[in-house]
């Protein structure tokens, strides 16, 4: 498990977007080559080797000058410089480890461990041992605990909702038909939010081979038709030859209600399933038909809202109730205001359709979102770095971070609980980037000034680093030895350090061990094992677990030589929703799918009542605000990277337009604004403004613009124009509803204009400014 020495060699490594062979010459990593048996490899790793030693790489521990001079305390007031507007001073590891240890001890003693926010949300890197969140959580747990976060930016609304009404997220995943089942038994896939091919490049934890496009093609070749509801044509692979229904964003629930109304009002709904396998059809039907509120949710009503064609929707509804159909929702449709409603209504429409609980049909949970969704889910148990137990009970729904920092002590609701925000004095982040993932970044920048201290481990001088007090340079996946297994992905990948960490860079584990030593917690944190011993131990335990299922995994050296190992399929319990038809209950209060949930109803939330409803978002193409901000902004996942990771590397940079993140807009919207391809444009609303490079295309619905997430946020001055094009400067920071409190990034209106001045340079790829 050591780094290779001189000469040419290759070692295996792995990321969330693929398994690779790393080509090394004289100890220098040259290339990351996708495995030649990957049917659909991608370029996401191109340029990473060079990026590892780019000027923007962190190579020394750094401390913000204002923090060093004044000590811990809120920033940007009382003569203290602001976070995001300061220079940094290099320190050596011994000094900085002592500084961090002292500050953690101070906060623990003066304010208690609940004053430490260690949620540290984000994707970090693949690897069972080096997984950054596991590292920081174990460290903070041995130090007495921390305020944590629950749910994810990916799937908060659907996860909370499914727990209440459908037996939980995993139950829905296990009930989702695979593309191969759909090929055998299915006829139609109706995908809300699409099945974006770019999104299937990724799987959390790792991905052995990109098999989803192949499986999708098999389904298409078997005659399955795809209908994709999305503002963007690229949300379906071309080979699917999908029917494209370019609806207004945020109107999915209304569309599904319209489809349901057409089926029910013509008496073609699956009344047997609705009354024996579902709870509360009698409460929902009067709402659908209009008896409850005087508004029948007809196809015409749905088309007024969504901008779709009534005849097209009627034909789709006719097929949904007569053919074996999957009603799928990607994650995007729930990352929006009232985001609980589209998945709830999709379940309901699937229950109405007659296909629910039948092979090749039903609800397609998050089908367009990640590689595993719609694929055979591996049930092989894999050992993980043990995080220990967090003695602190306080938590927040992950996307409520700015609220927490701005409103300590304030009460709020989450999933039927009444909680209060703790008073956070110290934020510790390892392997995630809130200045990528959070909404309304200008608000986050204000909130971020509140704590006494912000500590960050990062690879690069990115937007998170530039808002930290103490910056600790961390090794990348390519500089560590480990093994990776994606969640439910049927492959195990070896990771052997392919490059030496530059400068004084350390692994997250080594950084935390150094701090733990200063706090007298070294043995508790490391368990007395070295990094190599931990990796060996976790691999051995994985072998043992597989052995209990009569699966023999290779020894470590064999795994390294093979690079990647396919895991056999373990016997799986059948689809829980199919079980409903045979009288087997699921994990809801009624044991059935809850179209009406007495629990949710009892919370009394108007923004998420007891059954699925259409609610008008504050920001959508039907709202009065369109007078000033007439364009809907969708800000989904980027084509050329995972989130913000390696934005400075060649592959991501090659996709920039005029040096900025590309924004896709329709020719009509461009013409009316005098914009040509490649122009620098300004997007703005009351929350902020960004520059981007125009890409004009008829493959987007008029009135909608798309700016992917992930351009490293680069404000010209604090709170000012972002020169680079990060959509979260523009998005709204409000919970999906009182129930799930998830992020609602996709409900966002903007205006766009030609930028006429001299555009400010993008500087964020350079080194951290030093004193
Ligand atoms: N507007 C809008 N916002 C969104 C979304 C959207 O659709 N629209 N999508 C949301 C979704 S689904 C998600 S999941 C989030 C993603 O948000 P994040 O997961 O926070 O985004 P990443 O860019 O993956 O952040 C990972 C960071 O960790 C660093 N890193 C990687 N590996 C390691 C490691 O081993 N150690 C250390 N110390 N650091 C490491 C990387 O350099 C990077 O800065 O964004 C959300 N935000
Ligand atoms: N290449 C790449 N792949 C990724 C990621 C990445 O960063 N890069 N991130 C991964 C992660 S963490 C996650 S959680 C998943 C996310 O998976 P998703 O959330 O499904 O992905 P998005 O790209 O946000 O959205 C998919 C599409 O939904 C459409 N859309 C937006 N709003 C609406 C709406 O209101 N209604 C409808 N019908 N459609 C809408 C947009 O056109 C968008 O392209 O992707 C994963 N895959
Ligand atoms: Mo995500």
TrEMBL record:
GO molecular function, one term: electron transfer activity
One GO BP: anaerobic respiration
GO cellular-component term (any): outer membrane-bounded periplasmic space
Required cofactor names: Mo-bis(molybdopterin guanine dinucleotide)
Molybdopterin oxidoreductase domain mapped to chain residues: 57-517
Keywords per UniProt: Metal-binding, Molybdenum, Oxidoreductase, Periplasm
Span of domain Molybdopterin dinucleotide-binding: 631-748
InterPro entries hit by this protein: Asp_de-COase-like_dom_sf, CT_DMSOR/BSOR/TMAOR, Molybdopterin_N, MoPterin_dinucl-bd_dom, Mopterin_OxRdtase, Mopterin_OxRdtase_prok_CS, Prok_Mopterin_Oxidored
Entries under Pfam families matching the protein: Molybdopterin, Molybdopterin_N, Molydop_binding
Molybdopterin oxidoreductase N-terminal domain ranges (all copies): 13-51
Family: Belongs to the prokaryotic molybdopterin-containing oxidoreductase family.
Name of the protein: Molybdopterin-dependent oxidoreductase
Organism: Nakamurella alba
Lineage, opening ranks: Bacteria, Bacillati, Actinomycetota, Actinomycetes, Nakamurellales
């Amino acid at each position: 498990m050591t780094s290779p020495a001189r000469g040419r060699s290759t070692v295996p490594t792995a990321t969330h977007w693929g398994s690779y062979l790393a080509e090394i010459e004289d100890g220098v990593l040259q290339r990351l080559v996708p495995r030649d048996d990957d049917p659909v490899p991608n370029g996401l790793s191109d340029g990473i080797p060079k990026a590892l030693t780019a000027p923007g790489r962190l190579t020394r521990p750094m401390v913000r000058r204002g923090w060093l001079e004044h000590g811990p305390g809120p920033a940007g007031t009382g003569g203290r410089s602001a976070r995001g507007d300061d220079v940094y001073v290099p320190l050596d590891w011994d000094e900085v480890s002592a500084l961090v240890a002292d500050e953690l001890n101070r906060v623990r003693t003066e304010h208690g461990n609940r004053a430490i926010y260690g949620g540290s949300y984000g994707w970090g890197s693949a690897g069972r041992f080096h997984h950054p969140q596991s590292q920081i959580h174990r460290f903070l747990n041995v130090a007495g605990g921390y305020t944590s976060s629950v749910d994810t930016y990916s799937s908060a609304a659907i996860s909370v909702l499914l727990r209440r009404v459908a037996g939980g997220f995993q139950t829905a995943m296990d009930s989702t038909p695979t593309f191969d089942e759909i090929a055998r038994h299915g006829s139609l896939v109706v995908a809300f939010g699409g099945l974006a091919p770019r999104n299937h490049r990724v799987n959390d934890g790792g991905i052995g081979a990109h098999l989803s496009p192949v499986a999708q093609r098999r389904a298409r070749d078997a005659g399955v038709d795809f209908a994709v509801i999305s503002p963007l044509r690229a949300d379906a692979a071309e080979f699917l030859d999908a029917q494209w229904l370019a609806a207004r964003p945020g109107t999915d629930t209304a569309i599904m209600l319209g489809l349901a109304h057409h089926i029910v009002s013509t008496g073609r709904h699956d009344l047997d399933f609705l009354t024996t396998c579902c709870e509360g059809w009698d409460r929902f039907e009067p709402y659908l038909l209009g008896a409850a509120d005087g508004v029948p949710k007809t196809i015409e009503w749905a088309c007024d809202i969504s901008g779709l064609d009534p005849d097209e929707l009627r034909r789709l509804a006719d097929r949904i109730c007569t053919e074996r159909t999957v009603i799928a929702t990607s994650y995007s449709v729930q990352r929006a205001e009232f985001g609980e409603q589209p998945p709830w209504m999709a379940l309901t429409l699937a229950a109405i359709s007659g296909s629910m609980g039948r092979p090749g049909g039903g609800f397609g949970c998050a089908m367009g979102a990640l590689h595993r969704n719609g694929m055979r889910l591996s049930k092989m148990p894999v050992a993980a770095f043990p995080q220990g137990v967090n003695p602190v009970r306080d938590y927040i729904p992950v996307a409520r971070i700015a609220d927490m920092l701005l409103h300590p002590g304030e009460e709020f609701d989450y999933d039927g609980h009444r909680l209060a925000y703790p008073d956070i004095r110290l934020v510790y982040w390892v392997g995630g980037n809130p200045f990528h993932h959070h909404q309304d970044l200008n608000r986050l920048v204000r909130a971020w000034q509140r704590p006494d201290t912000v500590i960050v481990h990062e690879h690069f001088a990115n937007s998170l680093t530039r808002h930290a007090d103490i910056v600790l340079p961390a090794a990348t996946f390519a500089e560590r030895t480990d093994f990776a297994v994606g969640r439910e992905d049927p492959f195990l990948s070896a990771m052997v350090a392919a490059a030496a960490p530059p400068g004084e860079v350390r692994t997250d584990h080594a950084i935390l061990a150094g701090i733990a030593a200063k706090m007298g917690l070294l043995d508790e944190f490391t368990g007395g094992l070295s990094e190599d011993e931990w990796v060996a131990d976790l691999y051995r335990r994985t072998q043992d677990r597989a052995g209990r299922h009569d699966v023999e995994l290779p020894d470590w050296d064999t795994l390294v030589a093979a690079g990647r190992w396919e895991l056999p399929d373990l016997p799986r319990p059948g689809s829980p929703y199919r079980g409903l038809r045979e009288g087997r209950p699921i994990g809801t209060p009624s044991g059935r799918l809850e179209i009406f949930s007495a629990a949710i109803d009892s919370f009394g939330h108007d923004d998420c009542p007891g059954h699925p409803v259409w609610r008008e978002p504050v920001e959508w193409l039907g709202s009065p605000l369109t007078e000033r901000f007439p364009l809907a902004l969708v800000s989904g996942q980027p084509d050329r990277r995972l989130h913000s990771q390696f934005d400075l590397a060649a592959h991501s940079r090659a996709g920039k337009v005029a040096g900025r993140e590309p924004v896709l807009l329709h020719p009509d919207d461009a013409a009316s604004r005098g914009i040509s391809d490649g122009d620098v444009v300004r997007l703005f609303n009351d929350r902020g403004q960004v520059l981007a490079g125009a890409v004009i295309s008829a493959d987007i619905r008029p009135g909608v613009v798309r700016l992917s997430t992930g351009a490293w946020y680069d404000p010209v001055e604090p709170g000012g124009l972002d020169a680079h094009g990060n959509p979260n400067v523009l998005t709204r920071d409000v919970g999906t509803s009182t129930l799930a409190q998830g992020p609602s990034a996709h409900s966002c209106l903007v205006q766009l204009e030609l930028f006429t001045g001299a555009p400010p340079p993008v500087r964020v790829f350079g080194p951290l400014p030093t004193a």
